[in-house]
Write a structure and sequence with these properties.
Chain B: One of its GO terms (biological process) is cell division. The structure holds 2 protein chains of 2 kinds. By secondary structure, chain A is α/β, with parallel strands linked by helices. Chain A contains 13 helices and 8 strands. In chain B, strands 1-2 form a two-stranded antiparallel sheet. Classes of the chains: A alpha/beta, B alpha+beta.
């Protein structure tokens, strides 16, 4: 039986799709059969971040409406063979998604995959609600910024009241906090919320901290999930988070400022 | 990158912004066409399968449609798995 994991945040632009792509790739790299579904119908972008935009033939709406079979719509990743992508539709609107349709897709995928990642759209409308409805676990992506933390709190409330697990009064959805775009130097200068503050306010277990990093833009430029950039801090931080997700103990890295000597101040670069 | 990198010679990797622009140009060119006319792929597939099924009994689940969108040219590959010759004869006799 597959685990359904929603990547959500409430707020837009905090790194849901970047994190979905990185996580799905990371799980697949560790041999887990993983599929990542784009729920942002009308504004699909996961295909670009995964670098498969030229190969999209059918999408989730085609499958729900019976125009294509699920295995025809799944795009198999050419870099990691245990990874598949189910794209969102670019032309239809969100009403094309139905709970019954999504249920059927998840049931069918459950037979073949270990993990089903649902990349949620921003907001708390239909697409976001459907993305989280079937979740067993949730990765809540949060920036160290007031509006993002507030929206994360809001989405946690939605997870606790409007998911299938909550409706059926089963064990609640397992929640994980993933802080992204974290900049220890700004925290040190008192310009950014501290990690402890975010943890205290949201009070859910911390899965990982992804540092602000130039490698994220480079990765999206080329359509390569940033976790494949093993030299970058962000790539390594995602790999750590995936390891923790699978139960390994890993100390958090990149959460404190690098102590720079005089030479490095003069000659050293920026965050990799 | 610090000014010292200038002396270190070549960058390790080429800049990625060009790749971003090229990818966007290709994907948007295709999407803009798609906006003005209906997506024909589902219907094309159904009709192709119907035509083939007139001659051979095929499993609709064993039809694969692959597309590679390019700047100058795109390739559409439709792969239909045909059953063993014995099964084909059955259809032919039935007609």
């Amino acid at each position: 039986m597959a685990q359904v994991v929603v990547v959500t945040s409430g707020k837009g632009g905090v790194g849901k799709t970047t994190s979905s792509a990185a996580f799905a790739t990371g799980l697949a790299q560790r041999g887990k059969k993983t599929v990542v579904i784009d729920f942002d119908v009308g504004l699909r972008n996961l295909d670009l971040i995964m670098g498969v935009e030229r190969r999209v033939v059918f999408d989730i709406v085609n499958v729900i409406s019976g125009e294509a079979r699920l295995n025809q719509a799944l795009i198999r990743d050419k870099r990691v063979d245990t990874l598949s992508i189910l794209p969102a539709s670019q032309t239809r609107d969100k009403d094309a998604l139905t709970r019954e349709g999504v249920q059927k897709i998840i049931d069918e995928l459950s037979k073949d995959f270990d993990y089903i990642l649902c990349d949620s759209p921003a907001g708390i409308e239909k697409g976001a609600l459907l993305a989280l409805y079937f979740a067993d676990q949730a990765i809540v992506v949060t920036n160290p910024e007031v509006s993002s933390v507030r929206d994360s709190d809001r989405i946690l409330g939605v997870l606790q009241s409007r998911s299938k697990r909550s409706e059926e009064k089963r064990d609640p959805v397992k929640e994980h906090l993933l802080v992204t775009r974290f900049d220890p130097a700004r925290v040190e200068r008192g310009e950014m919320l501290k990690l402890e503050d975010i943890r205290e306010i949201l009070s859910i277990p911390l899965l990982g901290v992804i540092p602000e990093s130039e490698s994220v833009l480079r990765a999206s430029n080329t359509g390569t999930p940033v976790i494949m950039d093993g030299e970058s801090n962000a790539g390594q931080a995602y790999a750590d988070a995936v390891a923790r997700f699978l139960g390994e103990e890993k100390p958090h890295r990149f959460i404190e400022t690098e102590k720079k000597g005089l030479l490095k101040r003069l000659f050293g670069g920026r965050a990799a | 990158m610090s000014w010292l990198d200038f002396f270190r010679g070549q960058r390790k990797e080429p800049p990625t912004a060009t790749a971003a622009k090229e990818r966007l140009q290709i994907v948007l060119a295709h999407e803009r066409i798609g906006r003005t006319r209906e997506d024909f792929l589902p219907k094309l597939q159904q009709e192709l399968v119907a035509v083939v099924a007139r001659y051979v009994s095929i499993d609709p689940g064993k039809v694969n449609v692959n597309l590679d969108r390019g700047g100058d040219m795109s390739t559409l590959a439709i792969e239909i798995e045909l059953p063993a010759p014995s099964a084909m004869r059955v259809v032919a006799q039935a007609r």
